[in-house]
Fold this protein.
Amino acid sequence: QQQVKQSPQSLIVQKGGISIINCAYENTAFDYFPWYQQFPGKGPALLIAIRPDVSEKKEGRFTISFNKSAKQFSLHIMDSQPGDSATYFCAASKEAGSYQLTFGKGTKLSVIP
Amino acid sequence: DAGVIQSPRHEVTEMGQEVTLRCKPISGHDYLFWYRQTMMRGLELLIYFNNNVPIDDSGMPEDRFSAKMPNASFSTLKIQPSEPRDSAVYFCASSSLVPDTQYFGPGTRLTVL
């Protein structure tokens, strides 16, 4: 059972454009939602994370939008740069009890000049 | 800190052979995670440890897989006997607070012929 659904699988954006990646979750007990960034040949690295007490979190060019009622969250990359080309994973977990991060399948982002 | 260290980075072996993957977590981190990444299934948590004790091994695919953490600075993931369907990238990650940031190693790319 896939508990976190991520879309699109791949995304091509022009330099300077906005990249948007969406995730939906099923388990209402999830209360921690991180995004990880992975470059080829490297392990994933935490990019930004949100907890459901806020609807939006911004760090530089990266913003998470969170919709608790719809059980959806998304990553927006403003002014996308070629250096942002990577695979992005959304994830979800419960802070108490289980410490398992459930990952989405990933989105391969290509930012073209 | 050197980050999470994994060895070997690449492993090619023949079906039926024993494979041992190694991980050194970041010093001071209490949690250690083993993940497997494939195109088909994405990132899957296999097992995680807290203070060297296995907490949840429900993701271990079958009895051919075993993991140990004899001390706070070393963990192994063993596959015996290996099969071609075990071919994947195996990541080790560690964290000091869960579900706070998990720091991933560079991964071991395993190919079973």
Summary: Chain B touches chain A through 23 residues (CB under 8 Å). Chain B has a mean pLDDT of 94. The first strand of chain B starts at residue 5 and ends at 7.
